[in-house]
Amino acid sequence: MTTKITPIARIALANSLRVALLCGASLTISSPVLAQAATTAAPADTGEIVVTAEKRSSTVQKTPISITALSGADLTARGASDFSKIAQEVPGISERTAGPGQTEYEMRGLSSSGGAAATVGFFLDETPLTAASFTQNGKVVIDPNLYDLQRVEVLRGPQGTLYGSGSMGGAIKLITAQPNLDKIEASVNGSVSGTKGGDGANNAENAMINVPLIPGQLALRLVGSVGYTTGWIDRDVIGVDNATTNPNDWNEPAGSQTRGAPTNEAPTTVHHDVNDTHTRSVRATLTYQPDTAFTITPMFMYQKGDQGGYSAFDSVPGTMAHYQPFDNAESISDEFILGSVVAKYHTDSFDVTSATAYWHRTENQFQDASENLALGVFGGSVYPDQGGAGASTNNERDTSKQFSEEFRVASNGTGKFNWLVGLFYSDFKSQFYLDEPTAGLLAFESPAMQASDGTNLITIDEPTTIKQFAVFGEASYKFTPDLKLTVGLRYYDFHTTATSFQNGFLFDGTNLYNSAVPLAKSNTGVNPKFNLSYQVDRDVLLYSTISKGFRPSGVNQPTAGCGATPLTYDSDSVWNFEAGEKARTADGRITFNSDGYYEHWKGVQSIVDLLCGFSYTDNSAPANIYGGEAEVSVKVIEGATSHEGLTVAGSAGFAHAQYAADSPSTFITNGDPLLNIPRWTVTGSATYAQSLGNGLLGSARISYNYVDSREELTLNASTNGVQPGYQALPGYALTDIRFNLGKDSWTVGAFVNNVANVHAQLAYLNILSFNVAAYNRVVTNQPRTIGMDLTIRY
Fold it and tell me: Among 120, 352, 428, 550, which residue has the least CB neighbours within 10 Å?
């Protein structure tokens, strides 16, 4: 027997849902945390944003998944220049960062601490940027400049069917503005600001020009950016051996659980604000459209970032500085080149899309290892005349490149049945190279080793190739005009090969050591998805999803001299069970979207840190995660136009993420938390805009972002002196204020970021050399920054 919903029942259901959702919205808005943000703020447009989350055009409110989208106008109104700034205001997403271009993202409790693949996919237009990472600094992605971006889409929950490996927690899509075939466009933007504790001014300059070369058929869009951000972390070089008069100030016994007091010794050199950053980028996009059916869009992008040091301070003594016995600089550079071609063919029945891309990335970083080496290996002293090994610098160079091709065909039309099928192929190559020259090493070596190793403490060279092939598809069927079922499936095939070349004193302190270990791992599998959605009426959508996400298997570096460890690990996967709603009411003035989910993560790829300085990945116990996200936006006061009035918005994300069993091989016990996952993320904002006459529009925006505490593993928290222990990063809250004044052709803005000058603890820095128990290096955010910017449009 079939049940038919009558029009009266449908209206009653819709009204009941509205009442429930508005009650939820009222509770969200009136919560104490969000109430702190409700004072003043920038224009908000109630129009819906068109997105391509399902690889076909739709709107946020009509797409039955958990998604947040921000338009280019939103980004401009917020003064956002990088995605890390945007991530602070999106529910369900967290980040672990060491600075610009050194950030890994997590969603819905799926930590990416283990394995080589990220848990959140990162895409620039059609190009996947989250290839596997065999670097010491984590699964980090580039930090593209957001100038002249069309929109940002954040998709929460496993997206493995359409977006593949590395999207088990969700996906982030940055969509660039495309060339305009019909008219000339141009814009320039400049900003200047000052950071508390920084030396000098921050500045950024951006420019865009769009030129139709053949009107209606061929156009070129060029975007260029340069920027400088002052540092706020000092690097203090002690450089004086006071061990005779102050034996506890600097030198400590090997393996010491406490650090000395470097502040008791006068520094010989102080390098102020070493973590300053220079960035430059250029993007060129060409669109050729000979007719309405065919479009081809080649794009080239170049980006380079240089940082003088890490945005990290030493937890002991806890001042905004890093202390060193020798003057070893810690520079970081990151260069990225991308070329892509997207070709589209449109018919009334279907669309054909081909997306081809090749990118190349080179990262170099240097990290002082002298004190860590002394405490971990050489007797506690850093000085050769006291039995130490002297100055030591860890150098890491990571090069990676990837060719990818996606070919898909999607149906057109609004009929009952719609479908999409595609093929994906990628060829990824990387070379992880690490060495650590140590000045006083010769004193510890035999004559034969001196001739062979010299000052080479350790060298690892690991070229890796990962090839993957996938077939994917989704099909949807409308049982009624409002009830739709979508089923998706992805078959994948991964092959990883690597060779680990190792030599140097550290691997064997008495004999010559030179090793080449071939490694290989392959796996295949399928990723299903089931989505049921019901459009209650024009303004209310209900949906439920069952989906699976995965990461591929991988290989570990051999840990010679450190005991036997696994050379490979298996893939892991997560099942996601989710239900949500999307609602608009009061003629579109109120929007309330929310969802709840439960995830079961099997074979979790977990990191295992060893006292010998190495770490590896192994599959551990399963984990259970549950939580939810909610977003609300209310146009409290309407103005004469859609850009005027007062809008209050807020969001909250909750994630309870724990291991569900013991795993002795990875030192995990039942109930341990997943790493780097805040239980709560909460945001609030208020935006007020008012016409001032003569075409002028003034606006003000205040935003508040709260991130709960997160757990990390550190030797500083070890309870047994053998394995790292859990150590919490404190929660933090950041408040920003921005004022805009503008007309159609220009906008001038004034802003204060981090109003309360909060020194948030964002992460414990990954040590490239030896983790020690004596102290942590803590990554912190930019202090209070006050500035102005100007944008001119043509």
Answer: 352
What pLDDT is attached to residue 600?
Answer: 97
Instruction: Give tens-digit pLDDT for 130-169.
Output: 877 766 666 778 888 889 999 999 999 999 899 988 899 9
The residues pairing with 126 across neighbouring beta strands, listed in sequence order, are none
Please say if the pLDDT value at position 541 is more than 50: yes
Q: DSSP readout, 561-601?
A: TS----SEE--EEEEEEEEEEEEEETTTTEEEEEEEEEEEE
Question: Residue 370: in which H helix or E strand, if any?
Answer: helix 370-376
| β-pair partners for 393 | 368
Task: Give the DSSP H/E element, type plus range, for residue 765.
Answer: none
pLDDT > 60? residue 673: yes
Largest CA distance in the chain: 93
Rounded CA gap, 134 and 240, in Å?
38
Whether omega for the bond prior to residue 566 falls within 30 degrees of 0, making it cis, is no
Taking the CA of residue 192 as centre, how many other CA atoms within 13 Å lie in the half-sphere pointing to its CB? 2
Rounded Cα distance between 85 and 88, Å, is 6
Side-chain-side CA neighbours of 510 within 13 Å: the count stands at 1
- Strands (E) in 603-731, as ranges, are 605-609, 615-619, 623-638, 645-659, 680-693, 696-707, 710-714, 725-729
Cβ-in-10-Å burial (0-12, 13-18, 19+) of 674 comes to buried
pLDDT: which is higher, 502 or 786:
786
Instruction: Take residue 23 and report the two structure tokens written for it.
Output: 């009650």
245: pLDDT strictly greater than 60: no
CA distance linking residue 317 with residue 240, whole number of Å:
18
Q: How far apart are CA 427 and CA 569, in angstroms?
A: 20
Beta strand ranges found along 125-260 (DSSP E): 127-128, 149-156, 170-176, 185-195, 201-214, 218-229, 234-237
Cβ-proximal residues to 675 (8 Å cutoff; 6+ apart), any chain: 111, 113, 607, 710, 711, 712, 713
How far apart are alpha carbons 603 and 5 in whole angstroms?
44
Give the SS3 label for residue 622: coil
Residues 6+ apart with CB under 8 A from 395: 364, 365, 366, 434, 435, 436, 437
Burial of 214 (0-12, 13-18, 19+ CB in 10 A): exposed
- What 3-state DSSP class applies to 396? strand
What would the 3-class secondary structure string for 51-94 be? ECCCCCCEEHHHCCCCEEEEEHHHHHHHCCCCHHHHHCCCCCEE
Residue type, 261: A
Average pLDDT over residues 753-776: 89
- State the DSSP H helix or E strand holding residue 148, giving kind and residue range, or none if neither: none
DSSP character at residue 443: G
Q: Is 8 helix (H, G, I), strand (E, B) or coil?
A: helix
Position of tokens 């006061």?
A: 637
Q: In Å, what is the CA distance from 626 to each residue of 426, 541, 653, 657, 680? A: 33, 22, 11, 7, 12
What kind of architecture, by CATH, is found in domain 25-793? Beta Barrel (2.40)
Q: H or E stretch including 18?
A: helix 7-29
Question: If we measure between CA atoms, which residue out of 590, 584, 582, 673 comes closest to residue 625?
Answer: 673
Q: What CA–CA distance (Å, rounded) separates 623 from 190?
A: 47
Asked whether 401 and 361 are in contact (CB, 8 A), the reply is yes
d(CA 736, CA 752): 6
